[in-house]
């Protein structure tokens, strides 16, 4: 849907 | 990693330390909402499922384990351990969390970053974290006055996501094509819920005296 940034945060 | 995010994570860890100290040393969970703690446990257990495959850094993986362990320990202590479990008042701490979990689950299904089950669960956990503090704030509202340690706990918890907001602003302006609209929206809502508390917290601590935080 919304290809946002990769999950590098908690 | 930037200073805002680091301070945000430290503030989050501080909130765990304060709460764990309060319920283990103080032997009482009075003023603490078990409902909110249960929501946080759901948030971390659902969001950090990617612990097993999304290895972005040792720092992240370590803190994911710490957050799951601490939130679970807190729920266990308040629910099952004596004498804390006797200090929890189900009549006071009775926010209908199904009205929080339900809509967040629907939102996670509909608005997420990809149509995979994990992305839906991940989005659910982001939305749920935004509203997870509500039972705690309602409990404080009912009690009118906030115990000192509890006020520091809530302040640290609110500061953590507020610092994350600054982290997202910083990253937006320093990284190209950095987008995180789901956490941006949820983080803004989450921090917004603390505004009223922060106002009263600041008023009560302003004189340097540790006058108790009073919520109208």
Structural description of this entry:
By secondary structure, chain A is largely without helices or strands. Helices cover 0% and strands 0% of the residues of chain A. Chain A contains no helices and no strands. Chain A is elongated, with a radius of gyration of 8 Å. The model of chain A has no long low-confidence stretch (mean pLDDT 80). With 216 residues, chain B is mostly helical. Chain B has a two-stranded antiparallel ribbon. In chain B, helix 2 runs antiparallel to helix 5 and helix 7 (148-174) crosses helix 8 (181-206). Chain B is globular and about 45 Å long. The model of chain B has no long low-confidence stretch (mean pLDDT 95). Chains A and B meet through loops of A and helix 1, helix 3 and helix 8 of B.
Radius of gyration of chain B, Cα only, in angstroms?
Answer: 17 Å
- Quaternary structure state of the chains depicted: heterodimer
What does the radius of gyration of chain A come to? 8 Å
Number of strands of chain B: 2
Q: Largest sheet of chain A at a glance?
A: none
Distance between the termini of chain B: 39 Å
Order of the strands making up the biggest sheet of chain B: 1-2
Give the proportion of residues in helices of chain B: 55-70%
On the 0-100 scale, what is the average pLDDT of chain B?
A: 95
Q: Low-confidence spans of chain A: pLDDT under 50, at least 5 residues?
A: none
Question: Which terms summarize this structure?
Answer:
heterodimer; A: 10 residues; little secondary structure; 0% helix; B: 216 residues; mainly alpha; two-stranded antiparallel sheet; 8 helices; 2% strand
Overview in brief:
With 10 residues, chain A is largely without helices or strands. Helices cover 0% and strands 0% of the residues of chain A.
SSE blueprint and pairings:
The complex is a heterodimer of chains A (10) and B (216).
Chain A: no helix or strand
Chain B: H1 3-25, H2 34-47, H3 58-80, H4 98-110, H5 117-131, H6 134-143, E1 145-146, H7 148-174, H8 181-206, E2 213-214
Antiparallel strand pairs in B: 1-2
């Amino acid at each position: 849907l919304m290809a946002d940034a990769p999950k590098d945060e908690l | 990693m930037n200073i805002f995010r680091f301070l945000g994570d430290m503030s989050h860890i501080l909130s765990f330390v304060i709460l764990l100290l309060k319920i283990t040393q103080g032997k009482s969970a009075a003023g603490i909402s078990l409902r909110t703690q249960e929501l946080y446990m759901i948030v971390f257990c659902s969001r950090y499922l990617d612990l097993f495959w999304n290895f972005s850094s040792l720092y992240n993986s370590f803190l994911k384990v710490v957050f799951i362990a601490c939130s679970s320990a807190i729920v266990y202590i308040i629910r099952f351990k004596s004498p804390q479990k006797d200090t929890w008042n189900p009549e006071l701490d009775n926010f209908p969390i199904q009205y929080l979990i339900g809509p967040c689950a629907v939102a996670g299904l509909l608005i997420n970053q990809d149509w995979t089950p994990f992305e839906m669960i991940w989005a659910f956990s982001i939305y749920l974290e935004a509203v997870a503090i509500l039972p705690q704030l309602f409990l404080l509202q009912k009690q009118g006055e906030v115990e000192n340690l509890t006020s520091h706990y809530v302040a640290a918890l609110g500061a953590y996501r507020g610092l994350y907001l600054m982290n997202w602003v910083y990253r937006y302006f320093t990284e190209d094509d950095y987008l995180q609209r789901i956490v941006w929206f949820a983080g803004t809502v989450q921090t917004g819920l603390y505004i009223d508390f922060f106002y009263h917290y600041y008023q009560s601590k302003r004189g340097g005296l540790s006058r108790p935080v009073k919520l109208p």
